[in-house]
Amino acid sequence: MNELLWIFVSALLINNFVLSYFLGLCPFLGVSGRLDTAFRLGLATIFVMLITALCSWFLNTYVLVYAPYLRLISFIVVIASTVQFIEMVIKKLSPALFKALGIFLPLITTNCAILGLAIFATNRGYGLAEGLVFAFGAGAGFTLALVLMAGIREEVELSDVPALIRGTAMNLIIAGILSMAFMGFAGLFSAT
Amino acid sequence: MSSSRNTHVGKGDPGSLKLIATLSFAGLLSGLIIVLAYETTLPTITAYKAKVLEEAVFKVLPGVTSMQRLVYRDRALTVNDQVQKGDEAIFSGFDASGRLVGYAIPGAGPGFQDTIRLLYGYIPEQRKISGMEILESRETPGLGDKIYKDPAFVANFESLSVDPEIRAIKKGKPKAASDIDAITGATISSKAVVRIINEANRLWLPRLEQASGPEAER
Amino acid sequence: MKPKETRLQLQAAPLLKQNMTTGQTMRDVLLALLPATLAGLWYFGLGALLVLLCSIAGAMLTEWIFSPADSRFERLSDYTALLTGLLLGLTLPPALPLWMAFIGGAAAIGLGKLIWGGMGQNLFNPALVGRAFLLATFPIAMTTWSPQTGPADFFQISASNLAAPFMQAAYDGVSAATPLGLMKFEQQSTALWALVSGNTSGCIGETSGLLLLLGGLYLLLRRDLDWRIPAGILGSAALFSAVLYILDPIKFPGPLFSIFSGGLLLGAIYMATDPVTSPLTPRGAWIFAVGIGLLVILIRIYGGFPEGVMYAILLMNAATPLIDRYTQPRVFGKGIKNQ
Amino acid sequence: MSGLLVAPAIMAGLGLFFSVILAVAYRFLKVVEDPRIEETEMLLPGSNCGACGQPGCHAFAEKLVLGTLKPSQCTVASADTIDAVADLLDVDPGQQERRVARLRCAGGKNQAYQIAEYRGFENCRAAASVSGGGKGCSWGCLGLGDCGIACDFDAIHLNRNGLPEVDIDKCTACGDCVEACPRNLFVLAPLAQKLFVQCSTPLRGDAAMALCKVACDACGRCAADAAQGLIQMVENLPLVDYSAGGPALPDATFRCPTGAIQWLEGPQFTDQGSAMTRRENRYAQLH
Amino acid sequence: MLSKLLKFSFAHGVHPRESKEATVSLPIQRMPFVREYVMPLNQQLGAPSKPVVEVGARVHRGELIAEPGAFISTSLHSPVAGWVRAIDNRRYPGGVFARSIVIEADPFDTQQFPRAARDWRQLGAEEFVAEIQRAGIVGMGGAAFPAHAKYSIPEGQHIEHLLVNGAECEPFLTNDHRMMVERPDDLLRGIEILLHNLGARSATIGVETNKPDAIEILRRHIKPGQPIQVAPLRVKYPQGAEKMLIKSIFGREVPAGGLPRDLGMVVNNVGSVLAVADWFEFGMPLIERVVTVSGDGVEQPSNLLVPLGTPLREVLKFCDGLKEGVSQVVMGGPMMGTSVASLDVPVLKGTSGILAFRKPRSVQSREYACIRCGRCLEACPYFLNPSRLARLARARLYEEMPRYSIMDCVECGSCTFSCPSGIPIVQLIRTAKSQLRQSAGKVV
Amino acid sequence: MAKHKEDLHQEFIKGIWRDNPVFVQVLGMCPMLAVTNTAVNALAMGAATFFVLVGSSFLVSSLRLWIPRQVRISTYIIIIATFVTVTDFTLEALVPKIHKELGAFIPLIVVNCMILGRQEAFASRNSVRLAVMDALGMAAGFLFALLSLGTVREILGEGKLFGFSLFGPDFEPWVIMILPPGGFLTLGLLLLFFSWVKERKQRLEQRLTQLESEAQ
Ligand SMILES: Cc1cc2nc3c(=O)[nH]c(=O)nc-3n(C[C@H](O)[C@H](O)[C@H](O)COP(=O)(O)O)c2cc1C
Ligand SMILES: Cc1cc2nc3c(=O)[nH]c(=O)nc-3n(C[C@H](O)[C@H](O)[C@H](O)COP(=O)(O)O)c2cc1C
Ligand SMILES: Cc1cc2nc3c(=O)[nH]c(=O)nc-3n(C[C@H](O)[C@H](O)[C@H](O)COP(=O)(O)O)c2cc1C
Ligand SMILES: Cc1cc2nc3c(=O)[nH]c(=O)nc-3n(C[C@H](O)[C@H](O)[C@H](O)CO)c2cc1C
Ligand code: SF4
Ligand code: SF4
Ligand code: SF4
Ligand code: SF4
Ligand code: FES
User: Fold this and answer.
1) Could you list the residue range(s) of the whole structural domain that residue A36 is in?
2) Res D273 pLDDT > 60
3) Which candidate from F26, F110, F180 shows the least CB-CB separation from A72?
4) Are C91 and C262 contacting, i.e. CB atoms less than 8 angstroms apart?
5) Nearest CA of chain A to the CA of F158: how many Å?
6) Could you tell me the CATH superfamily of domain E2-25+120-282?
7) Atom nearest to E368 CA in ligand 7
8) Do A89 and D29 lie within an 8 Å CB cutoff?
9) Which of residues 172-191 of B touch A (CB under 8 A)?
10) Chains touching chain D, criterion 3+ CB pairs below 8 Å
11) Ligand with smallest separation from the Cα of B185
12) Which of E98, E161, F1, F213 could cross-link E40 (Cys pair, CB 3.0–4.6 Å)?
């Protein structure tokens, strides 16, 4: 099994960031109400994750060899600043793109999926290519979970869910069932 | 910041310089605090890490009392304690008399849920594996985690031939010297462990043979 | 005032209805499952019967307890709780401790149906939610298979069935691998006739391919199920495994084995077709079905489980709202060009 | 111990680097937007009900900042909120006249005759489309509560008589009920206007009385008893025109044979229990 | 002829029991005059007519009593000779009250109508339209859309083909069937008149194959060389809906929101064509129509020729009254008709049937939740998603519904008919449409 | 002064129940679910969060007058990240085993929305005393939530509590509780349970007031 492919499939399905690692739950629970918003948030997340992979690789290779203890804080500062910078650029250059994707950027920056991605990639010693593939897989997996969730939630809006359950409790239980369904991917490509 | 007339930010609008200064100062301070904490805890942490590693090596290579870190570079193995990114490293273990007993080889690969990392001991003279220790895994509790919780499974690796290739076989089936009993209900994790070791063998055994020259000696 | 006539009733048109009702549909499905259920009992004995009863009891009791007091009888009388319990029971190993079957029934109705607002509103197949819950909760018990006892030993109950609640089961005797388990871990195929007649180990209701097909036929004739779904699932699964089989006949099972082994028939005919959790639109049904077929073979061959029907159905259930949304039929007279 | 120097240096460097970049970017890339819009929106109730005629609170805030609308046009906001918004934007809050939803029908189950039995979807609009829902009066309230569901402020509840009662403290005059009612029975009337006709039938005399015990039979006594011009009979119903001079007094209601015209001090229908018996007696005497 | 072998049809639709046995072979019978007639002013779609008579006036049978109130409106004629007794709000089938002219029949009048043919060959297009409006003809297929409005073809459009709708897909009804069987020559004459005046080249009469005698008789009466065909149609509801008819016969779809004339066609009910013939051949305006009285609650099912304005009570009385325990009386067919609250409402221009039922027809013992079985989708001839629409309507998410093309629903009721869960889908859709229309009116 | 004490007390109490960051505000979900497979892990995580939250609240509220508005968020993050890094090292040195179990989730405390949220919503606007009280309350509430989840999951998932076996060796563990779906489901059901309790309480209170008014 090709190493890069395994990294991708693992991040996308088997160890889905949301459903298996519990990362990025706030946007997952908060922004999954409407399908089209969810999809755009997903795309924005993929984008930020790729940026994060780049930043963390850069920091790991050029800065942190001198001061490994600054890992966490420098990740945070660099990722946040870069995203904020890109946000401003997009806002200036393409208001349409900003309206579609950019408004989610600040929401994503302070999100554990992003920082988690950087930390996992570092812990596992991923290089640049591996890091980017990992980021793409994780982002796509996040988008997949988010879009499925949003589809389900839009449907649930039409049902008479008991008032007591409506809201976060319901969303968590749906996530639990989704997570159960995703268990079906466990062991994928490692059995043969 | 001349446009502050209609931006309604409040009282005095501090200049950019002040902002930059604040952030830099905060960074400076935090860096200082962190480094202090780091320096204080570093000895304990490094000592603990070394201890864990040593224990693992000693466990997979019975009878070993000291070890060395070997790095494979430029088609040769050299002793090197400096951990660097991208290193391909194994450990050689020596007994009390200073004789080379064998090597502890790390390996990693996909398991049932996530990547499994392990370390196993290899004794070149006998072409045998002398022990296996799981360093990291997220296998299912109660099933896959038997690869390190089930003593019977771990015992499989205490004296295991590497020729022709290790295989995981269901319990009760006839076995060769290079076959192990798969865990019932966790065949996949068992096979994953076997595959990881096989792959590491494929990588390292030729290298060890080629490099079993004097420089590996103490 | 004028003399009173009988008051007329006002109803919105149309005033005619075809005579099928949803309750009737559910009764049909129960009927269609009867032969396969009886075969399961024939092969696995009293223990299997108890497992079925416990899962049905778990399901119906949960429905009863958590329904509003004034609609309890009504809710139970639509047969869906009974059907869910039965279908769940049919997908359980015959030697499962009874208390687990009961919990499975409760989880199926509780998590699979009630929290969604009751019948018709759930988006995941309740019986499979129950099974997935059980499989993740008690993986060992759920994958320990007992050999068939046959009708002669009908009254022999395995000790594991009777494990005390919340306690581990002690398995007596030998365990038997299912055809899929044999295939996956030992590359060992099972004779087709054994698969078709049901003479193998496995879940209570899944073994007898022939009787499952028979019930499916009945449902098709009664127009109770969407034929596209079983056709799509079986077709795509057969095609996928045929391709693999041609590539490497030793490593991969053939299409007939794929169809008749494991829960594929039970799943394709009775579970993926659950109207509530499958797409409404005909095109959606095809996508859904082909998705399940491919996922089943993917999980069976490349995945960590010998069987993937349940996960495939649940995953496609999750995608159903999306499928439905993007396969709306073209409205009459929209988007056409008239010369 | 080199870390003692390296770490603060790196951190300060990073902080410096990025804050400079961001400061510069801020300077050159910032898109200016009037922050008062957001601040105004924060003050508004945020129920996005559209009573102001705008698609939502944000749009209303934009219009407020532009000065094309007045804060008081938000009927949901309390007086304090409106003042706060007016203060913030330094504009005139506008006139506020408290209005509530009033029902132009008093024919509940006990008053209006039923001529057929409706069976089907329990919804006023649905019932109205099936030959009028079985109520003899095709103008009156169907009593299936569409208005109550439409009201976002929980101000409408059906009473035991099958009529919607408006809680005048909760009603914000958003007008949702006006739109929801298929019989168009609700009007938003100023609370200060107390003379109110609780009937909508254009039929008169016996034809009207054949529908409902409390129908207006267009006898015209209220118009005669009120100040000159205050009440006019239009299409067999009294129309109260407050701008027409003369004071509106309860006197106009005294001789109404059915009680179709009422003097409302507070909510509608609350006094109906006792008042009805009197009117019912009267009705019995008439026939 | 090729069409002899083919049965034309459309996709989807449903097969309700036809139940036409009771009246299919009963000849049309004239209903005697009764004492009082109620002529509501809004018997057509569009603006109400304006009375031109005063209370107390004497009127002849067929005399104009109200003129069109606008272009989309039409004339009313007195169905009897008698006196105008009131112009007043009277109960109307829709459950509301409507302004109506009440006429008391003169019991001693002979009620003769002087026959006089009119020339139809020399009319200009506009004159023809004016004639039809003068005759008070509306579509008799149910919608009661003023016929003249259908015939006034806008600039740039051109009618190629006339489709005569003899599908009569509603169960129970047999009035169109009887008209085709009993008056084939008048029908063909009406077609000739319309072909001539619309400038159309050919005509097709679509008839469901459950009326083989009608197909046979019409084919026999078509003169050689007449550009008229009879198309046998599959028996399926709603075969008679005009867009379905066009799809069945020509395989073409009328664009959503469009009209048949966008495809160069005009569709008319058999009754409407006969009314045209009556006007030009006999000078008879629309003052009576054929009504099928049927259902298990009627003592004597019949096909009647009823003067407009006759109260239902009188019609039913003529059919020996209602049986014991009748719970429901419906105007129109059982699929699209309306149940009436009171028997005092009159027969209108658009009333094709009066059905009385003993036990409520549409009540399923219980309503289940929607199980998304998709039967409604497979029934809807317009390829909508009724389940979704109904769920949205229940959740009151009306604004979402145009996304699912709610406005293309013609309320044919196929979905409700086929729903095993007994969900009143059409009613939910109708409610939502009504609410949407009202809100749309409000938004400035 | 007594009144002031009361206020402080209130600030503390509200975090535990009325404004509980997890059950009521639905914040900090990720660590909540990720590390609560055993009660010990939950406790460790709770403690770490406790330290970071209280420390940074203290610092932020003491420095609140010096931090310019525009860079306040960045500064808070730097402060929090510093505390987290320190905690990380400390835990690794003191309890390496637990540190390994918690893995990446210690650094992830930085992005726990609850912590940043408290700085922005409370610490930056209130006196040090109030801020610390609030932080103590919130942290205690968080710890309470973590512990309830961890306890349930450990008891069912392993038949143990804090590592001590509760039901003997024959207990059949509910493996799902330790797996990801179990986290979601348990928290969902806990939330359901709490809102049920709340509703019942409300209904009871309503009944009481009704009875009282009827009695009058
Ligand atoms: C919830 C769950 C978790 C599982 N976890 C593992 C695991 O971690 N490792 C493993 O090898 N098998 C695991 N399995 C079992 C595999 O799916 C597969 O059935 C097993 O490896 C077959 O082994 P056997 O042939 O010995 O029965 C798990 C099964 C379930 C249901
Ligand atoms: C409808 C249906 C769906 C099933 N889905 C699954 C599944 O997704 N995963 C699984 O392990 N077993 C599933 N089963 C049970 C398998 O069919 C059965 O376990 C199979 O024979 C494989 O056994 P093994 O896991 O011991 O090899 C399902 C059974 C039925 C009837
Ligand atoms: C669902 C539906 C069913 C209809 N069924 C018939 C029918 O059976 N016969 C008929 O003449 N018109 C029927 N119509 C009316 C036709 O669509 C069309 O309006 C009519 O044939 C036009 O002729 P007219 O204007 O002369 O009435 C139906 C309409 C709808 C929407
Ligand atoms: C053809 C058909 C298949 C069904 N399959 C299932 C099933 O697999 N699982 C289940 O719980 N209910 C099944 N039901 C019953 C019912 O649809 C189900 O309980 C609903 O999901 C409850 O809302 C089925 C019903 C029909 C008509
Ligand atoms: S007022 Fe209108 S909406 Fe309200 S119950 Fe009466 S009819 Fe229905
Ligand atoms: S819906 Fe009617 S009653 Fe409710 S607040 Fe609006 S105006 Fe008042
Ligand atoms: S036919 Fe009825 S039950 Fe079936 S999908 Fe349509 S509305 Fe739902
Ligand atoms: S009523 Fe409307 S939605 Fe239903 S089948 Fe007819 S056209 Fe389709
Ligand atoms: S419930 Fe199925 S459409 Fe209303």
Assistant:
1) 30-181
2) no
3) F110
4) no
5) 19
6) NADH-ubiquinone oxidoreductase 51kDa subunit (3.40.50.11540)
7) 3
8) yes
9) 188, 191
10) A, B, C, E, F
11) 1
12) E98
Which residues have C-beta within 8 Å of that of residue C215, sequence separation ≥ 6? C31, C32, C33, C34, C35, C36, C269, C270
The ranges assigned to domains in chain E are: 2-25+120-282, 375-439
Do A and E make contact, counting contact as 3+ CB pairs within 8 angstroms?
Answer: yes
- C-alpha B154/C-alpha B157 separation (Å) is 6
b/e burial code for range D191-203 (CB count within 10 A of at least 16 → b) = eeebbbbbbbbbb
**pLDDT of F20-55, one tens digit each?**
888 877 778 888 888 898 899 999 999 999 999 999
Q: Point out which residues pair with D103 in neighbouring strands.
A: D186
* A186 CA → ligand 1 middle, Å: 9
Evaluate whether residue A86 is within a structural domain.
Answer: yes
Q: At C86, which helix (H) or strand (E)?
A: helix C80-90
pLDDT at E363: 56
- The answer to whether A64 touches A56, Cβ cutoff 8 Å, is no
* C-alpha triplet C157, C158, C162: angle, nearest 5°: 85
Q: Which atom of ligand 8 is nearest to the CA of E379?
A: 5
Domain count within chain A: 1
* Cα C296 from Cα B109, distance rounded (Å): 25
Contact by Cβ (8 Å): E296, E192: no
CB atoms under 10 Å from CB of E14, counted, come to 26
Assess if residue A14 is contained within a domain.
Answer: no
Nearest CA to ligand 3 atom 23: E268
Residues composing chain C: 339
Q: Which are the contacts of F207, defined by CB distance < 8 A and separation ≥ 6?
A: none
> d(Cα C291, Cα C293) in Å, to the nearest integer?
6
pLDDT digits (tens, 9 = 90+) for A49-85: 999 999 999 998 888 887 888 888 888 888 888 888 8
Q: Answer whether the bond into residue E238 is a cis peptide, omega within 30°.
A: yes
| Residue E321, both tokens | 């009254």
Q: Rounded to an integer, what distance in angstroms lies between the CA atom of residue F189 and that of residue E244?
A: 52
CA-nearest of C9, E359, E419 to D130 is C9
Taking 50 as the pLDDT cut, the residues of chain A under it are: none
Tell me how crowded residue E48 is: count the other CB atoms within 10 A of its CB: 18
Distances in Å between the alpha carbon of C169 and those of C104, C142, C162, C163, F176? 16, 11, 8, 5, 18
Quick one: which ligand is closest to D159's CA? 5
Residues forming a β-bridge with C9: D117
Q: Domain count of chain F? A: 1
Residues in contact with A96: Cβ distance below 8 Å, sequence separation at least 6, in sequence order = none
Let me know: does F150 contact F39? Beta carbons within 8 Å.
yes
Nearest residue CA, atom 17 of ligand 1?
A: C305
Closest C-chain CA to D120: C11
Q: Which residues contact F177 (CB under 8 A, 6 or more apart)?
A: C137, F37, F152, F153, F154, F156, F157, F186
Domains contained in chain D, CATH given: 35-89 (1.10.15.40), 99-286 (3.30.70.20)
Rounded to a whole number of angstroms, the distance from the CA of F144 to the nearest CA of chain C is 26
Q: How far is CA C295 from the centre of its chain?
A: 16
Signed CA dihedral, D69, D72, D76, D82: sign only: positive
Helices and strands of chain D, counted as H and E runs: 11, 9
Q: Whose CA is nearest to atom 14 of ligand 1?
A: B186
Q: How far is C18 from chain E (nearest CA, A)?
A: 6
Measured between alpha carbons, how far is A6 from A2 in angstroms, rounded to an integer?
A: 6
Residues of F contacting chain C (CB within 8 angstroms): 167, 170-172, 174-177, 179, 181-182, 185
- Do E and B touch, 3+ Cβ pairs within 8 Å? The answer is no
